[in-house]
Amino acid sequence: MDDLGDHDIVVLCVLKGGYQFCVDLVDRIKALSRNSNRTIPMRVNFIRLKSYLNDQSTADLHIVGAEDLSFLAGKAVVDTGKTMEKLLKHVEAFQPKLIKVAGLLVKRVPHNAACLPDCMYLTNPFYELMNVGFEIPDRFVVGYALDYNEYFRDLDHICVISEKGKMKYKIEKEGVQKEADVIQQKA
Fold first, then answer.
1. In the chain, count of helices (H) and strands (E)?
2. Distance from the first to the final alpha carbon of the chain
3. Could you provide one GO biological process annotation from this protein's UniProt record (predicted)?
4. Residue in 8, 79, 138, 181 annotated catalytic
């Protein structure tokens, strides 16, 4: 709590995959605040990012929403770091006093040493170092709100999706799955 200084916190929950982690993170911050000498004013905002098709990160990042002062960005998985980098550039436009990033999982990606938590953002002193729960191998994981093409968010645990599972829920082109869902609902 001391490392937050006198800042109010705006927790920026990165939807959709980060919602469960964000809920648990906010609950923990509230518990720490209750047990400290001072309370930390906290608000929660939401932003939706979409940067995946199947298990591949795409070059496109779609951002929906985001405004406020001081941010604690809660994201469930950081793998290539490209999405987080683009998100933080977007957040900078709001001139927050401080940005801290909390990631539940950080993938060990061979071509991404610059995005590992121990050296992330060292080029910009504006950022605090990232808080990381676990470092994991470069495998596609689902559960605990993490999805594969909108499936598996409801799992209470995190697991690696098998190749068979990827093939079963694969989307050939964006929009094709939506058409299939509409047909299935009519049946």
1. 4, 8
2. 53
3. IMP salvage
4. 79
Is residue 79 flagged as an active site residue?
A: yes
Question: pTM above the 0.85 mark?
Answer: no
Mode of pairing for the β-strands spanning 99-107 and 131-136 = parallel
* Tens of each residue's pLDDT in the chain, 187 residues: 566 666 778 888 888 889 999 999 999 988 888 888 877 788 888 888 776 666 766 555 555 544 444 455 555 566 667 777 777 887 777 777 777 888 888 887 765 544 444 444 444 444 444 677 888 898 999 999 999 999 999 999 999 999 999 999 998 875 545 544 554 555 4
What is the CATH classification number for the domain harbouring 107?
3.40.50.2020
Question: Containing domain of residue 74, as a range?
Answer: 2-186
